[in-house]
Amino acid sequence: MTGKLRALALAAGVLAIVGGCGEGEQPEQGSSGAPDTTATVGQPALSGRISVAGSTTVQPLAELLSEAFSAEYPDVEITVQGGGSSVGVKSAGEGTVEIGMASREIKNSEFEEFPGIVVHTIARDGIAIVSHPDAGVDRLTTEQVRNIFNGEITDWSEVGGSAGPVITVAREEGSGTRAAFEELVMDGTLITGGAVLQPSNGAVRTTVSTTPMSIGFLSFGYLDETVRSIAVDGVLPNEETAASGEYPVVRPLNMITLGQPEGISKAWLDFIMSPDGQAIVSSEGYIAVN
Amino acid sequence: MRTRFIVDKSVGYFLMLMALTSILAVFLIGFFTLREGLPAISEIGLGRLLTGSVWRPGLEEFGLVPMIAGSVLVTIGAAILGVPLAIGCAVFLAEIAPRWMSNIVRPAVELLAGIPSVVYGLFGMVVLVPLARKVPVAGNSGFGLLAASAVLAVMILPTITNISEYAIRLVPREYREGSLALGTTRWQTITRVILPSARSGIVAAIILGIGRALGETIAMIMVIGNSVIIPRPLNANPLTIFLSQARTLTGNIAVEINYATGIHESALFATGVILFVLIMLINSSARAIMRERTR
């Protein structure tokens, strides 16, 4: 009996700890020999390895862009890791990776901490406001969206919808999408503590599509017919309105280097900004910048 | 003769080494969690971590009260729903079920322990959350303590059932026979003789189940809503507290660690230290109760 219990107790303890701490150690990949190339852009002799880390919003796009680049330069290896926008800025600033990724503007505090960083905006991404169709609302002003998310508006009837309490769905603290939403919409006010928090764009979409009377926000790349897109200040969220600047909630997707990029980093960033690279950006639902 | 002796000895040492490895693993995990959490504990202060009611890492506010309340409430909910079920199941298996039937029920209960917790979460998200949303209370999103407690109740069922059944089977046959010989019914024998005799084993089973509940992570994230609030009733009825969203200590770590840097990251490790201590207290109290029994 005691033996069995002891084993169980041990297992329970270990499980709890693994459950608690097993997730996402930040990548501390050493700079993996980038300077070993002397090749300049366009020369097929380009070879070597660079690592890229940061925003999980930019990550899938960066992976596609690295595959397309490697098809042209088979001797180049680009490893792409997640970690989040803050990690992206920090790793690039400290030089632990060649390129960092961030799905938001770089904060002043970050420029102060890492004065040497150079920001390259490779694409833009809109954040759409989405609701469950039951809410009966298809347009809101930026101010209404802000007041819904900071908890001042609590019933859909206050904004012309069906009567019933609003259920707000948001991303967790630290998410680039949340940070961009706060910066572009919340105007210094805080997202209400009563919001249901989900840890990814996909989970927010599932929650909003299955929860009547709910409202949330999503990266454009995740929009589909299961949720209703809300027109903000009369403008529907799509690539055209975002590209033309009419749609108000748009954020940059950034690549960050320490100093001006050289070698593979420069060649890859040039490729991303080329028509081929930007075609990949648009085909993934993001807004090309060139 | 000599080689046999050497083989025997070395196998003994080898097995001891394996046992030491598992102890080492616990020790190392504890050590590193503590080391990573120490900056937050010294900078923020253990008192403020444990008593602060606001958690806003962006504004450098690190109070764990909402998460502690969430973990405690969801565990209480799971115990209310799961313990009677599990003990009923254990009594049935040990005392009432014919052999062929317990041969079906027992593996089924044990299978529950083998289902990955993300599958429980998925089930909770698509079945239990919409069910919980049917409770007609304003502001009820379905995500919250009720759905999470229901998921946890099923998850801790195998732990409590297995150990309780074992404890019930350890009650000497003479007790049963003596009781029945006095003319009691089966039900009277179970409630007055068997359950009291197996009490400490059952209590230990419940405590271990609670330890399991406290440690559960991914299934909780999927159904509990993860809002950083101290749960409170949605209307005048105090029971509606279980319709409130919440966040558990484990969920707090898992949701935020991907983005956390600096003191925020350290505060999450400190959350891990607090969980570690809680689980250690719970498991050792279960062991203490078991020891008392065997004495």
Tell me the strand order in the biggest sheet of chain B. 1-2
Q: Segments of chain B where pLDDT lies below 50 for 5+ residues? A: none
Strand content of chain A: 15-25%
Order of helices and strands of chain A: HEHEHEHEEHEHEHEEHEHHE
Structural class of chain B: mainly alpha
Whole-angstrom Rg of chain A? 22 Å
| Overall pLDDT score of chain B | 91
Q: Regarding CATH, which class of chain B?
A: Mainly Alpha
CATH homologous superfamily of chain B, by name? MetI-like
Strand content of chain B: under 5%
pLDDT averaged over residues of chain A: 83
Give the terminus-to-terminus CA distance of chain A: 70 Å
Helix proportion range of chain B: over 70%
Q: Could you give the count of β-strands of chain A?
A: 11
Assigned CATH architecture of chain B: Orthogonal Bundle
Instruction: Tell me the domain tally of chain B.
Output: 1
